[in-house]
Amino acid sequence: MGRFDLSSIEEYVANHLRLFIFSVAGLLLLVGIVAASVFFLAVSGAEQTMVPDVTGKELTEALLELQVKELYPRLQLRYTQTARDKGLILEQEPRPGTIVKAGRRIRLVVSQGVIVNKVENFIGRNIDEVRMDLQTIYAASGGLSIFFISEPLMYEFSPENPGTILAQKPEPETDISGPTTLEFVVSMGRENTTVTVPQISGLELSRALELISSSGINFQFTVRERSGNERGETVVSQRPAADTTSPLNTVVQLTVTTPEKLEEGEVFGLFHYSIPLNPYPLAVRLDALLPTGERIRLFTTNYVGGEFTVPYKLPVGTVLVLSMLNRELYRETISG
After folding, report:
1. Would the CATH topology of 68-113 be identical to that of 127-187?
2. CATH code 3.30.300.130 for 68-113
3. How far apart, in whole angstroms, are the C-alpha atoms of residue 225 and residue 205?
4. Which of 2, 63, 193, 240 lies 20 to 30 A from 256 at CA?
């Protein structure tokens, strides 16, 4: 029986222990490398690329450049002041030279050119309707004005209805390539036009306002206290008298009496505002915003301008709003 060699056993154990330690260390190192790789891949994400400069280029050319960079477009359309830049890139976001991840969407603003490229025929249309149409075009173009109306307008008497466009410059179908100023000649109606003054005296205020609105006469109210057996809120006098033939813009003076009684919190008063004179009557309305939030129409008419007066009976705190051609001119709050 041989002798047991203790030193050989110790050397054997030591060698295997070192091998085990190196194996564990190597495994841990490998796990660390894999974990770090996964981490950095997750952080870095997709491959990075530089945003090219496509501003001022044709849309097709810009799209090809983005495709090469593995970038994708998000298009927005905008009208401009000239037809020459139609189809060109006006803006881009992010800016050229920005480093982004591949697959990023790039916002491109593309010109659609001008909304129109010829002057429309405005002759025969009402000037106020044309103004509203141009405002609609302005809003549709994102705040870009194509047409500007030369002010002040030129007026002349004609058989056409007041406000009708008689002539324009540039002429219809004229080619345009940018903002254009329109010059209009507008009808004032017939010269020396007369009107027959209707019977207003004796009418209750609400009925008198309806008649004024439909007849289109020029008017001015005054208010006085009732006397004797007079009814409240009634027109008790007018000048000129009914059935008088007068020039169209003659002011008919009307006197109305105060109410017989008022509810608690109500006020009877006379709304007054000086409207600049116009060459012909324009649409005017007076609204009331009640304290409850309700909006009611008090009066509407075509008015040439001057002292605009309308009696009212409304609660304290009501807001009176005067508008012309759907544009607010003035407002005031009724106080006690």
Report:
1. yes
2. no
3. 14
4. 193
Write out the two tokens for 192.
């020396």
Q: What is the largest CA-CA distance in the chain?
A: 156
Q: Residues 35-87: pLDDT tens digits?
A: 666 555 554 545 889 999 999 999 999 999 999 999 999 999 887 766 678 88
CA distances from 185 to 102, 126, 146, 157, 181 (A): 59, 11, 20, 10, 14
Around Cβ 252, how many Cβ atoms within 10 Å?
Answer: 22
d(CA 193, CA 249): 9
Q: What CATH number does domain 127-187 carry, 3.40.50, 3.30.420, 3.30.10, 3.30.43?
A: 3.30.10
Q: How is residue 160 written in tokens?
A: 């056409």
Measured distance CA(219)–CA(236) in Å, rounded: 15
pTM of the model: 0.59
Per domain, the residue ranges of the chain are 68-113, 127-187, 194-333
Cα–Cα dist 45/70, whole Å: 14
Residue 72: half-sphere exposure toward Cβ, Cα within 13 Å: 5
Q: Are 233 and 205 in contact (CB under 8 A)?
A: yes
Tokens representing 256 are: 């109305």
Q: What is the DSSP string of 36-64?
A: HHHHHHHHH-SPEEEPP--TTSBHHHHHH
Listed in sequence order, the residues at least 6 apart from 112 whose beta carbon sits closer than 8 Å to its beta carbon are 77, 78, 79, 80, 86
More confident residue, 261 or 141: 261
Omega of the bond prior to 73 within 30 degrees of 0, cis? no
Preceding peptide of 170 cis, ω within 30°: yes
For residue 12, what pLDDT band results from cuts at 50, 70 and 90? Answer: low
Instruction: List, for residues 165-190, the tens digit of each pLDDT value.
Output: 999 999 999 988 778 899 999 999 88
Q: Which amino acid is at 207?
A: R
Contact 75, 110 (CB under 8 A): yes
Q: Which fold has domain 194-333?
A: Trypsin Inhibitor V; Chain A (3.30.10)
